[in-house]
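--- STAGE predict ---
source: upstream dedup step, 1 unique chain passed
mode: sequence only
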Amino acid sequence: MAHHLVFRSEGGPTEIQNETAVCAVCHALLHQGQLEVSGSPLDGLRWRARADGLKLSLEEEREELAYVPVLRHRMEVKGGGVLETQSGRPDESERPDKVTGKVTGKLIDRRAERERMLLSALTALGFSKAEARERASEVLEKLGDRAESMPEGDLIKEAFRRSA
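--- STAGE serialize ---
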């Protein structure tokens, strides 16, 4: 399949210097912007996947997230229950303040935070404390590390779905 380096729709001529042969998949990727080709067929072509330009390291983002404050939410639920959740980026390590360098306190364990949130949600939904504790522990154990990054609603649904 022939591909125009400068698209015909953008005034690219149908000449050997402006064309290259590509398979159907690469042709589709070129038009979707997922694959780029530069240069000329006479002097050499340079092929580059769009993903090549992406930054793959998440270290900067992790550094920023280390300082996100933990926010606690308390909500009255129909039937007299209370739903308590917590958001932010808690973990067990102490983090120094970005400006002063002083340790400002210990953040809570993410698993413990997820377990408390699940217990609160399940009891608000009518489960006994014992059954809520059992379901929360089972779901967190089953999901392992994935539970830390799952949205709270998905964790609650997973615990709710568990067969008795």
